[in-house]
Amino acid sequence: MTSALAVTLLCNPASPRLEPSLADSLSNAWGGGDLRWLSPNVAVEFFVDRAPDNQAQVWDDLQKMDVDLVVQPAVGRRKKMLLADMDSTMIQQECIDELADMAGVGDRVKDITARAMNGELDFEGALTERVGLLKGLPVGVIDQVLAERITLMPGGPALLATMKANGAYAALVSGGFTAFTAQVAAQLGFDENRANTLIADNGTLTGDVGRPILGREAKVEALEQITARLGITEQDVIAVGDGANDLGMLTRSGMGVALHAKPSVAAQCDVRINHGDLTALLYVQGYADGDFAG
């Protein structure tokens, strides 16, 4: 009989700290099977028949060691589609904050962004307020920000290359802007991207954004529309994000991953990655280093 649950322990690949003795002791305590190392000192998995009673306490203890813990059904964890947020997820920045910094209103906008991503503000209202502060900014600044300030989240290229090599579809859905998602999607190999449109006139931003605004519900609609088009179910999707506007797709998808997420967001997700990078999304699906493409 196949064990019902897969248990994955992982840490940041840039700082391998996962000790075999730790994994061994946890597997023994939980009645698990043999360890399967997915990446030396970075990620390991074993299987158990039932959920352990002290999972929450163990999770807390492991967090103090900079180790993430994921316990999930073993069957069906390898997904057919990736649905990803962009800002602070596939890239390490918030694009609107970087534009605002160039416009001299960085601190004001960063505060609004942080509160919106934590669910304290209405997303659409917060977006229109922030975009309004960009009025008069030359459009050319977007290319400058892309070239000088935007960096990919570690593990992103491996995540896209490996899932696509295994037949998965990849969609980038952002509450940010198409001027950024188009380039990030092309660079990483996403099949499609959806985001908001900054309106410009005579080479400068007008301070307005195209309607309808793509927020939380639009990400859920993307999940519904794309899975229907592909003929797969929402259970076949792994979604990843960090903000309150991602919660709809994270809680609806077969595996919703809160990546370095705001506390209010992480609290509502079963899969929380606080220390690993985007390769964590491969490890929790059972991919080992030797399976990585690209």
Give a quick summary of the entry.
The protein is α/β, with parallel strands linked by helices. It has helices at 20-29, 55-63, 95-102, 106-117, 123-132, 140-148, 156-165, 178-188, 216-230, 247-252, 263-266, 280-283; strands at residues 5-10, 36-39, 43-48, 68-73, 81-84, 169-177, 192-196, 198-201, 204-209, 237-241, 255-259, 271-273.
Question: What features would you describe in this structure?
Answer:
- The strands form three sheets. Strands 7-6-5-10-11-12 form a six-stranded parallel beta sheet, sandwiched between helices. The chain has a four-stranded antiparallel beta sheet with strand order 2-3-1-4. A two-stranded antiparallel sheet has the order 8-9.
- It has two domains: 1-75, 2-Layer Sandwich (Alpha-Beta Plaits); 78-294, HAD superfamily/HAD-like (Rossmann fold, 3-Layer(aba) Sandwich), CATH 3.40.50.1000.
- The model has no long low-confidence stretch (mean pLDDT 96).
- With 294 residues, it is an alpha/beta fold.
- α11 links the parallel β11 (255-259) and β12 (271-273).
- It has helices at residues 20-29, 55-63, 95-102, 106-117, 123-132, 140-148, 156-165, 178-188, 216-230, 247-252, 263-266, 280-283; strands spanning 5-10, 36-39, 43-48, 68-73, 81-84, 169-177, 192-196, 198-201, 204-209, 237-241, 255-259, 271-273.
- α3 (95-102) packs antiparallel against α4 and α4 runs antiparallel to α5.
- It is elongated.
- The chain is built from twelve helices and twelve strands.
Task: Describe the secondary-structure layout.
Elements lengths: L4 E6 L9 H10 L6 E4 L3 E6 L6 H9 L4 E6 L7 E4 L10 H8 L3 H12 L5 H10 L7 H9 L7 H10 L3 E9 H11 L3 E5 L1 E4 L2 E6 L6 H15 L6 E5 L5 H6 L2 E5 L3 H4 L4 E3 L6 H4 L11
Parallel strand pairs: 5-6, 5-10, 6-7, 10-11, 11-12
Antiparallel strand pairs: 1-3, 1-4, 2-3, 8-9
Helix pairs in contact: 3-4, 4-5
